[in-house]
Amino acid sequence: MKKITLILLALVFVSCAKSTAQKTEFSKEALSETLLSTNNGQVAFSEILSQNKGKIVVIEVWASWCGDCVKAMPKIKELQAAHPKTAYVFISMDKTADKWKSGIEKHQLQGAHFMANDQMSGVFAKAIDLDWIPRYIIIDKTGKIVLYRAIETDFDQINNTLSQLEKE
């Protein structure tokens, strides 16, 4: 019985470690998924990344209905002020384009804006292991993911990561 318990605990640990692992690149599913642009066109996620090639990029996954996202807006604006050369890409999980666009305007979000076509439980969300919003992903100038899973309580880590990348 003791052996079975230890095996089960080991499996749970490995499963949890795998799900929170730091990824350094996006999956093929994520890269090929299309997102809605503010001009109502569809853009592949890979194209969004290509448009920011050679730049440090912060991706924020958010929604206008998300209280934690709204609460974190001043922090993202502080990051933008402290790191003005960094590109900011906002990906909304809103249910409608009208609410998404109203949220952009209401919170005066500066950066590139896109909306997932199938929200929190869709293909894109699953492809980036989305389990909480706001979620932040940082990509370095080479296109490598350097911070895969950060949330609104991780702004010190996000700021420190950006500062370190700017020195490189």
Strand line-up across the major sheet = 2-1-5-4-3-6-7
CATH homologous superfamily placement: Glutaredoxin
Q: Summarize the main sheet.
A: 7 strands, mixed
**CATH architecture assignment name:** 3-Layer(aba) Sandwich
Helical percentage: 40-55%
Rounded to the nearest angstrom, the radius of gyration is 17 Å
Structural class: alpha/beta
Q: CATH topology, anyone? A: Glutaredoxin
Give the oligomer, counting copies of the same chain as homo and different chains as hetero.
single chain
Beta-strand residue percentage: 15-25%
Q: Give the N-terminus to C-terminus distance in angstroms.
A: 53 Å
Overall shape: it is globular
Mean pLDDT value: 88
H/E element order:
HHEEHEHEHEHEEH
Number of domains in the coordinates? 1
Strand runs, count: 7
- Give me the number of helical elements: 7
Task: Enumerate the spans where pLDDT stays under 50 for 5 or more consecutive residues.
Answer: 5-19
Subcellular location: Cell envelope
Organism: Flavobacterium plantiphilum
Main location: other
InterPro entries: Thioredoxin-like_fold, Thioredoxin-like_sf, Thioredoxin_domain, Thioredoxin_ResA/DsbE_sf
Overview of the structural elements:
The chain has a seven-stranded mixed sheet with strand order 2-1-5-4-3-6-7. It has helices at residues 2-19, 28-32, 45-51, 67-82, 97-107, 123-127, 155-167; strands spanning 34-37, 42-44, 57-62, 87-92, 112-116, 135-139, 145-151. The model is unreliable at 5-19 (pLDDT under 50). A hairpin with a 4-residue loop joins strand 1 and strand 2 (42-44). It has a single domain (23-167), classed as Glutaredoxin, CATH 3.40.30.10. It has seven helices and seven strands; from the N terminus they run H-H-E-E-H-E-H-E-H-E-H-E-E-H. The protein has 168 residues and is an alpha/beta fold.
